[in-house]
Every structure is written in C-alpha cells, then in structure tokens.
C-alpha cells in the first residue's frame, strides 16, 4: 500500500483521475438537484432540520444522527434518480412493465428512508420543543 501511495504522489495522472472522479460525482449531484423535484424537497427539509438543530441546541450525538438521516434520504434519492435515468435510457422512453417495477421499487426505497427520517426527527426534536414550551408556560 505504501508503494502505491508513493506512486500516486509522484504521478500526476493519478491525481487528475481522482480529481475527475470528484468532478463527476459533483456533476451527478448537481444534475439531481437541478432536475429532480423530489431532490429539491429533500434538500429543503434537510436544511430546515439542520437549522432547527442549531436553534434547539441539540447535542452533538443527536446532530450526527440528523446529518446521517439526511444523508440517507439524499443517498436513496440519488440512487433512485440514477435508476430512473438508466431505465429511461434502456427503454428509450417506451413503457415496459419491468422498467416500471424497477422505477417504483427505487421510489419505494426513497419513501421508506423519508418516512424513517420523519420518525428520527420526531424522536429528536419533539422532546426539545416540549422542553422549551414547558419552560415558557
């Protein structure tokens, strides 16, 4: 492993390959954010959850759970988008029952992660909100 690391440091080819890998990954994320309505919704609610976390001054452990949950939803939406684009490419836009099943199944994965994120957010945020309102009463 050490020899490979030395080779990578001395070889600009490997550096450019790794830089291109990150560029391709960010291009995929950018495409999804620009073109997928549901991704915009997930980004909005993820941002809202982070802002709420800061306002409620939740613990670092709770914040880590919120960030991981947001990441899981965005991850499943990215996978869903890639499956949808691939299916559309393969079927050339024509209806195919198996293609529909593939798209519906990947959308189901996003739905499950989104519902799970609502439970996680509720478990973390509701006690903090109750505590704040209890102090004000």
Structure commentary:
By secondary structure, this protein is mainly alpha-helical. It has a single domain (36-136), classed as Helix Hairpins. It has helices at residues 2-10, 12-35, 37-56, 60-91, 97-136. Helix 2 (12-35) packs across helix 3, helix 3 packs parallel to helix 5 (97-136) and helix 4 packs antiparallel against helix 5 (97-136). The radius of gyration is 20 Å and the shape is flat. The mean pLDDT is 90.
Summary of the model, kept short:
The chain has 137 residues and is mostly helical. Helix content is 91%, strand content 0%. The relative contact order is 0.09.
Number of strands: 0
User: Which of globular, elongated, flat, extended, rod-shaped describes the shape?
Assistant: flat
- Mean pLDDT over the residues: 90
The top-level CATH class is Mainly Alpha
Tags for this model:
mainly alpha, Helix Hairpins
Give me the secondary-structure topology.
Blueprint: H1 2-10, H2 12-35, H3 37-56, H4 60-91, H5 97-136
Helix pairs in contact: 2-3, 3-4, 3-5, 4-5
């Amino acid at each position: 492993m050490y020899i490979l690391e030395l080779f990578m440091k001395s070889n600009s080819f490997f550096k450019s390959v790794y830089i291109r890998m990150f560029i391709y990954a960010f291009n995929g994320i950018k495409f999804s954010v620009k073109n997928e309505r549901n991704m915009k919704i997930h980004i909005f609610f993820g941002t809202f959850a982070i802002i709420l976390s800061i306002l409620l001054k939740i613990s670092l452990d709770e914040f880590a759970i919120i960030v991981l949950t947001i990441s899981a939803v965005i991850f499943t939406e990215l996978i869903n988008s890639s499956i949808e684009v691939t299916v559309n490419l393969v079927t050339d836009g024509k209806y195919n029952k198996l293609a529909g099943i593939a798209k519906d199944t990947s959308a189901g994965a996003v739905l499950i992660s989104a519902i799970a994120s609502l439970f996680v957010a509720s478990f973390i945020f509701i006690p903090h909100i109750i505590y704040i309102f209890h102090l004000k009463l």
